[in-house]
Write a structure and sequence with these properties.
about 190 residues, mainly beta, Jelly Rolls, six-stranded antiparallel β-sheet, about 50% strand, globular
Length: about 190
């Protein structure tokens, strides 16, 4: 468990370092702001994450699933059966360092396990006023992957709040549902 936590922190540090290195020239960074969410049952993730279901969806559930959580005991898990059905969980994130600053670079990420009938994950950062994408990463089913994989999107923040959403799309038509398990969501901004 500790090794996973250390690896997770190391991966976040590398992601931040790459973001800072690859960011366009601008004002020097003065700090890092971070929000994490491990979907732990004791923290009541259902009170923070709003589900959306278009078609037939089972979940989200914040315990259970096929395998163990990546860290802790909780994770988000749900299933979608038929194309073009999709389901998501999302929440509004207040980007504290954006207020009064320009050139703030942010990265959002999630650890995911995809399985079943041709699932696709979307990692989405959305403008809550216009409901348009600020950042989007589409993750097609990679085939059999034994463990958790990290998926991130990066953007230059233009507003103090965004909607972070993780969507599962069924790209096939059964008989097996598309399944997803998500753990350890993170939003990190450098300013």
């Amino acid at each position: 468990m500790r090794l996973r936590s250390r690896l997770s922190r190391a991966l976040v540090a590398v992601t931040v370092a790459l973001t800072v290195t690859l960011a366009p020239a601008g004002p020097a960074s003065a700090g890092i702001w971070q929000l994490t969410d491990g979907f732990e049952p004791a923290t009541n993730p259902a009170s923070r994450w709003t589900p959306t279901a278009v078609g037939t969806c089972w979940g989200p559930y914040y315990t259970g699933g096929i395998g163990p959580a990546r860290t802790g005991t909780g994770f988000a898990h749900w299933r979608v059966l038929y194309q073009p059905d999709w389901c998501s969980i999302g929440r509004t994130i207040r980007l504290s360092p954006v207020v009064g600053r320009t050139g703030v670079r942010c990265t959002a990420g999630i650890w995911a396990r995809l399985r079943g009938g041709d699932p696709q994950l979307n990692v989405e950062v959305i403008d809550p006023d216009t409901w348009t994408y600020i950042a989007l990463k589409t993750v097609p089913y990679p085939g059999w992957v034994a463990g958790w994989t990290l998926h991130t999107v990066t953007w230059t923040a233009q507003r103090p709040d965004v909607v972070l959403r993780f969507a599962l799309l069924a790209k096939g038509n059964g008989p097996y549902p598309a399944e997803i398990e998500l753990d350890d969501a993170i939003v990190q901004c450098t300013y």
